[in-house]
Amino acid sequence: MQRITIDPITRLEGHGKIEIFLNDEGDVANTYFQIPELRGFERFCVGRPVEEMPVLTGRICGVCPEAHHMAAAKACDAVYHLDPPRPAKLLRELLYSAFYVTDHTTHFYALGGPDFVMGPDAPVAERNILGVIHKVGLEIGGKVIQARRAGHTVIEMIGGRKVHPCTSIPGGLSKGITEEQRVEIEKLGRWAIEFAQFSLKLFGDIVLSNKAYVDLVLGDAYMHRTYSIGTVDANNKVNFYDGLVSVVDPEGKRIGKYAPHEYPDWIAERVEPWTYLKFPYLKKIGWNGFTDGVESGVYSATPLSRLNAADGMATPLAQAEYDKFYNALGGKPVHQRLATHWARLIELLYAAERWVELATDPEITSDNFRAIPTETPTEGVGIVEAPRGTLTHHYWTDERGILTKVNLIVGTTNNYAPISMSIKKAAASFIKKGTIVSEGMLNRVEMAFRAYDPCFGCATHSFPGQMPLQVTVRDARGEVVEVLKQHC
Questions:
Q1: Distance CA 386, CA 241 (A)
Q2: Phi-psi region of 487 (alpha: psi -120 to 50; beta: other; left: phi over 0)
Q3: Residues 199, 193: Cα–Cα separation, whole Å
Q4: Alpha carbon 415 to chain centroid distance?
Q5: Cα–Cα distance between 272 and 462 in angstroms, integer?
Q6: pLDDT of residue 58
């Protein structure tokens, strides 16, 4: 049996490798998407004061510390049985909307975009952000940098730091914003709306007007009919910060919605011995292996899934793009995974519109931004939509607020099963008996996971926690004296 290894895989956050096994005839027999890194956050948070979690978990990685900061703060609210005042919720969501603009911009232009702007078979040295800027022009490259600068300016104003914000605490925030800052935030948000519209137009010009790309997006190689989940507001519109998690089946029928504390009734986690990631699945449906369809509990939690799980967008410009999206792709639900790139840009526009809505709310500069804890801490769950999936933080504490147990289901972990399925299907579609396996062909396999925008910096952990370790002892001449190994 022949083995093809893609290691390391590229243009993602974190590390991973793909193993492709061919049978004696040269067709794909199986694939493994392995995550070899261990972080272990759930374990070493135990014993820490729960109020440290909004800052501590933000250090899991530098890509989406804002998502962990928010989920941790909301879990702390629940642990202390607090309902933060409305201005605190507005400020948190405003920071979070600005973060979404920066994050979705990064993925479209630096990670996923090069496959379409440069082409999936372009030389690997050109298939990156520098190649994109060279092709589309320095002016557009400047817009991308400006979008990220604007978002991080808002994050610093509200969150205290450009990266790893620190102001969300149990019951609200430790600081508010001034009227002068609000005016600047609104100005940046209005520019972000124009940038999001520009990005959608660019996607239309480059991808939707190219028949080869449209055929690739709509083809069977990147399609899976799974369940979809995503947080919705009271009107069942997409919401990143608060609401209930909507679950729809592969036919688009909503089978229910759950509040954060109800997630154990809906989500279970499966462990496989060959990877440090777990495989969450819908408990009510059950685990039936790496298969799609109504009988499989495998689900997706991505920008595309959020649109499938909602009835629309809560802002007018994003709603118009939502309607255009489903009209073009034949209605709901959409299962073509490469369409996630388009859905991500619709979310980018929604985040920018929501940014301005929140910045112009009369209460956004109120000094009523915190409720003081008065009750004994116990247990709590916080959920937000991270850009790459539903993020759940669940904490248990003793009566002093010291953590006794922690469970995190992070955005990418939700998608591990569908990502693995997508990689196998793409590999089987492009690698056939008698064909010469080219770099471009392997890149098309990698495109299967890039649509999900995975981040393995925070997704990895082990059960029961057996980290492989090898220590090589050398003498003064550099000669190997002894090699000590554990779990490898």
A1: 9
A2: left
A3: 10
A4: 9
A5: 10
A6: 86
Q: Mean pLDDT score of the chain, rounded to an integer?
A: 91
CB 333 within 8 A of CB 255: no
Contact 34, 276 (CB under 8 A): no
3-state DSSP call for residue 326? helix
Q: Say how far apart CA 488 and CA 342 lie, in whole Å.
A: 42
Whole-angstrom distance, CA of residue 375 vs CA of residue 354 = 33
Of the candidates 304, 310, 313, 370, the residue with the CA atom closest to the CA atom of residue 340: 304
Q: How far apart are CA 408 and CA 459, in angstroms?
A: 9
3-state secondary structure of 272: coil
**Residue of 382, 377, 256, 360 lying closest to 309 (CA atoms):** 256
Alpha-helical segments (H) within 296-410:
303-309, 316-328, 340-359
Q: Residue 17's CB: how many other CB atoms inside 10 A?
A: 14
Q: What predicted TM-score, i.e. pTM, was given to this entire model?
A: 0.91
- Model confidence pLDDT, tens digit, residues 92-126: 999 999 999 999 999 999 888 888 888 888 888 88
- Cβ contacts of 440 within 8 Å, gap of 6 or more: 120, 121, 122
Cα–Cα distances in Å, from 43 out to 144, 268, 468?
Answer: 38, 19, 17
Q: What does 198-265 look like in DSSP terms, one character per residue?
A: HHHHHHIIIIIT-HHHHHHHHSGGGB---EEEEEE-TTSBB-SSSSEEEEE-TTS-EEEEE-GGGHHH
Which residue has tokens 């509990």?
Answer: 297
pLDDT score recorded for residue 36: 66
Residues of the chain with pLDDT under 70: 36-39, 457-472, 484-488
Q: Respond yes or no on whether the N-terminal peptide bond of residue 273 is cis (omega within 30° of 0).
A: no
Can you give the pLDDT at residue 23? 87
HEC assignment per residue over 439-471: HHHHHHHHHHHHCCCCECCCCCCCCCCCCCEEE
Type and span of the H or E element at 418: helix 416-430
In whole angstroms, what is the distance from residue 410 CA to residue 401 CA? 23
Query: How far is it, in rounded angstroms, from Cα 276 to Cα 295?
Result: 26
At 32-55, the pLDDT tens digits run 887 766 667 888 899 999 999 999
